[in-house]
Protein 1
Amino acid sequence: MPADRLLPTTEAEDLLALTRELAREELAPLAAEYEEAERFPREQFRLLGKSGLLGLPYPERWGGGDVPYEVYLQVLEEIASAWMSVGVGLSVHTMSCFALAHHGTEAQRERWLPAMLGGDLLGAYALSESHAGSDAAALSTRARREGDAYLVTGAKAWITHGGQADFYTTMVRTSDDGGTGISCLLVDRDTPGLSAAPPERKMGLTASTTTQLLFDNARVDADRLLGEEGAGLRIALESLNSGRLGIAACSVGLAQAALDEAVAYAKQRTQFGSPIIEFQGVEFLLADMAAAVESARATYLEAARRRDRGLPFQRQASIAKLVATDAAMKVTTDAVQVLGGAGYTRDFPVERYMREAKVPQIFEGTNQIQRLVIARALRTA
Ligand SMILES: Cc1cc2nc3c(=O)[nH]c(=O)nc-3n(C[C@H](O)[C@H](O)[C@H](O)COP(=O)(O)OP(=O)(O)OC[C@H]3O[C@@H](n4cnc5c(N)ncnc54)[C@H](O)[C@@H]3O)c2cc1C
């Protein structure tokens, strides 16, 4: 059942209608096959680009869609509902454009942003390292200035779109000053000395490639520094505030898909002479799932509306990410329960949804880290 949305304008309604059609016709039919084959959906990202969906929340003058976050996130939710790996990929791409769009110089934006937002290129965001996950400030990939370039050496871990992306928004260490010794470079995929390790073998999101990125004296032109030297961690965390809203929206989309499957199954499956949806034990489970989906959606929309109005939204973004990803884990698990034995097989998508729901509780700051952000805001309020 399509989510019942209150959209701010008729243009937004049209955009959502177009997205739903694209998701239903072009994405949903391929999801199970690509996930099973661990095949990266590069063509589908090109299609999103051609449809103008790869730069939605950025200004039109650089090829973006100029839509409010409130609308962009609902587009993302619809895409994730059809295919979570593509939704997460769109969210990561959008986040990878943040540093240039918000911290690049005018000349840098003119030069690179239209291609990044306009459709054919795909981005990645490279912060984590094997020893620096939750503690991102401990990262050690080193960029040493030599003339008009940085020579970068080290390894980034867990990079979504590793080896597939056209550009990598990469946080590197330019001095030993802890969190203020980190800088942000826009690294081109063809940079000499840059390579990707073989993809990680994951529990879910298997069509979304995740790899280590290896820098071996990789030469990055100094004019690819975004923001000041030393501003990289601040830029990375700012990007994550917005990115977490994307992960929240994707998780709501996934939970909605699981709820829809569960309701459809419960209406047609009979036991003891009745459709199982008529048993209170099942219908209350479905009611709780619907309540979790709608309250998580309301939570991310509230944070997005604050962002759209220029209000602080960091705490609300962490709450949205925590609430929505926990909701998706619970709702997808309950969907498997509603389908009984069938839910545990690959004949139905709910077992995949359940596997896909786990990682949003981990990436872009684990849910423990979201609690730290929320608790810190309470302490300092
Ligand atoms: C599929 C996938 C895709 C990813 N994509 C990207 C990407 O595109 N770009 C990128 O930069 N990174 C990416 N990541 C990395 C991701 O953001 C990290 O995995 C995450 O931040 C956690 O880091 P970690 O795995 O090192 O866990 P750790 O930091 O080692 O945490 C282990 C456990 O300890 C807990 N913990 C740690 N510190 C604290 C604390 N202070 N208080 C309480 N609990 C704590 C954590 O919550 C967790 O439960 C991805 C990860 C995965 C799995």
Protein 2
Amino acid sequence: MFARLSILRHFIAARWLRRFAGRAALEAWQRRRMQDFRREVLAHLPLYRPLALAPLKDFPIADKAFVRHHFAGLNRLGISHDEALPLARQGAEVAGVTIGMSSGTSGNRGIFLVDAAERQRWAGTILAKALPPGGLARRHRIALVLAANSRLYTTTSQSGRIVFDFFDLTQGLDCHLAGLAAFDPTVLVAPAHVLAYLARAGLGIAPERVFSVAEVLDPAEAAVIAQAWGGPVHQIYQCTEGFLGITCAHGTLHLNEDCVLVEKEWIDRGRRAFNPLITDFSRRTQAMVRYRMNDVLIERAVPCPCGSPLTALERIEGRRDDILAFSKAEDGLALMFPDDVRATILDAAPAASDFQAVQPDPGHLAVALAGDVPPDQISAVRAALCHAVRRLGADEPEIAFTAYQPPTDHALKLRRVRRGFGLP
Ligand SMILES: [Zn+2]
């Protein structure tokens, strides 16, 4: 009962109470939350105590390796990464704190520590921002088609009018089709390529709201999904590191700056491309300060018509590893963003229904085209890519065409553009 009231309280706060008159009001509110966070959390953590009064820019930038290395200094239990790992695999609870693992596949899964209050706040906030009009006053059946279950999601299955069903992608996708049709979700949450697959499968379901999560929403897939169930296709931007963004009624993705502080680390200002550094001033069990996400976000050039002061994004373009890099004679490497790779390939080969582009090293690129693509379009792709790379001032790569492999393991994130080597 207490849990349900707590979720409701956060639902109301996120849906109706946290309204900001403008950007200045939002930033003033964030400053107050940061002061509380410094006093209540950072001042008690050995790693950050000496910095408790320092400006944020003096804090070290954190990433996966940093968190793993300093794990014990970042959480309230003082538990190390090695101690937490076996507990996370079981989803164990220690002193009221759940130790869990993010969804995804081995290698990339992160460990998170949350207590009951944080889970309830997460559930209330995400429901407030995700549910269609009517919210908790109506019954909803929410289908989560994701790679791994987590205690975060099961929290909300106790929320009375909301029924969750979880369809585990690690078991495959076709085995869930009948179950999904029978569940008949009002809200459907899945990775973009899985939504497109379900849209094409014609399950006879009619979700009111469809959310793409966990991977880049490809424009062609968005069109297939919108055609099946009506648009816009909504997006949730969330990961081990927290609930970071969600689309508004206009289908624009906004950062959840009413939950986290986001610093923009610019990759290319002309393109409005940045890496977000996330500081989550709401979390108490495990501190996240200046955490650099691997994602490349593109800021919207014009404000969203919804009028929200929360930063509006044009799109999530992919991960840093999805930016290709070609050799340049004098000064190192020229970067080519995944969206440009996509547009260059698909504009030159309109017969291709999908594609993959993998770069093993700066001088080579392997391209695979799906569908019946005539030879002249394949030549056009080669010429267009070479032209695009030359325009960046880089040397033409050797381009090889390989057989297209459709995704078979739906639990893996689909990445059409991939760089197979590190950047200096
Ligand atoms: Zn908006």
